[in-house]
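Retro notes
What went well: the complex prediction finally ran end to end.
Inputs used:
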Amino acid sequence: MSFETLVFYFLATILLFAAFRVVTARHPVHAALFLVLSFFTGAGLWMLLEAEFLAITLVLVYIGAVMVLFLFVVMMLNLNIEKMRAGFWSNLPLAAFVGLLMAIEMVLVLTVAGRTIGGDPTRHAAGYSNTKELGLLIYTDYVYPFEIAAVILLVAIIAAIAITLRRRVGTKHQDPSWQVSVKRKDRVRMVSMPAEVTTAGMSSLPPDAQKEGE
Amino acid sequence: MTDTIALLQGFFGFSWPVVSNLAKIFAIIVPLLLGVAYLTYAERKIIGYMQVRIGPNRVGPKGWLQPIADGLKLFMKEIVIPAGASKGVFLLAPLLALGPALAAWAVVPFGPELMVANIDASLLYVMAITSMGVYGIVLAGWASNSKYSFLGGMRAAAQIVSYELAMGFALVGVLLAAQSLNLVEIVNGQQGGMFNWYWLPLFPLFIVYLIAGVAETNRAPFDVVEGESEIVGFHVEYSGFAFAIFFLAEYANMILVATMTSLLFLGGWNPPVDVAPFTWIPGFFWLFAKACFILFLFLWFRATFPRYRYDQIMRLGWKVFIPVTLVWLMVVATAMQTPYGYLFH
């Protein structure tokens, strides 16, 4: 068994364990953390396949952004774990059937189709840049699907922001440009007053304050 | 040197890759941790002098042993685990904060040949690894089982995620200019004096990266996590060495951001003027000097600026930095296609 195979089985074991714990963990936050672990291990597996761009992007996008926001939501919601687990046994047969079907499909794809289509994958030379190759493909052969997907995501972003922009009464809005452009005359009024005249030995201050002043 | 390596290789035989890599890791982590210790000392001294004080001067000659004494003190203290805390996650969180701060150094080059791993997409790797640092903060806030640390964790995490976007866009500008994701090639693209460094053509991105780096590491003026007026930091429940690890992570991240800024925008190990007396000095010294300069800026900011309010932090990140970086990315990308593209690389 080569070192690579050893690494593969090591990562695969962790991945399966983490994926299993995502479903079985008692607390939703722990489940989300196991999902993070399974993403990370999956990235390790992709790295083993020399798909370094995909592996690093998986870490950057899914672990660095998506799962953080996911954790935010899971932590802030008051999740009722008992209620969530209520239908577990009744749904199990269907879920097991779907899972088995998926497993069979994957075995078929990897064994039967894989042998006829690809054969054994070949190793790339040292100077091969996965990132450059992907960029070339995305921006030449697949430019329209890529751009359409980007536009759809942009629309989703704008829609999500538009939902938050409802008019609410009674909120204290701040206008930073107005705050920054405030001049002295907006806040301070200079008043010209004649100086108070005090005669010698007498002061407008009470005697206690006079003592403290000395 | 090659003889010594061959000798060691013969001695360790089959286990040589493990031993050599462990040696490389130690060669980075030990100076890094020492750097963290003396950065805290430098911080207290520099801010002391800026405020016309002396700073620590009691432990050892001129206070040089102060960071050692501080570390020892934190090491001896008890780690208090709050009642009702999620114990495993509570203890895991500091490690999740420190791990990425150290792991990112695997690809940071200190010279054209001097690094642990020279991988093709090293810039992307640094981005991905540092984006994982936020887990330590979110989980520390949550696992403490205290509403103050939870709120603090949420705020700090939202701040870090927001500024990561601006930072990422600034890095996209650098990779446009260098046309490579490899840190060594990015630095090599800046050869020939300080006017060939990327800070000049990418000036808005340089400023955004620097300030976002300050916000990303939760340093003043973005240090709401340790604001005395509203103590809702994610680490309020941490004590002893668990707190010290958060502290280590923060300072290791500062050194990382300073080094990355020097590599990406300030020419890395290239001398500022490409003539004789400056080129004699080894490149590592230049990188070190540039990183120290950026670190000095971090400390200077802390001594100068009042703390931002939370909504101001969010406004700066989303409404100022991201539009600025987007506009400058368009400028760079467009200029690349014109005859003036040479100005940008």
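What we learned: The interface with chain B takes residues 27, 29-30, 33, 36, 52-53, 56-57, 59-60, 63-65, 68-69, 71-72, 75-76, 129-131, 174, 176 of chain A (CB under 8 Å).
What to try next: split runs per interface for comparison.
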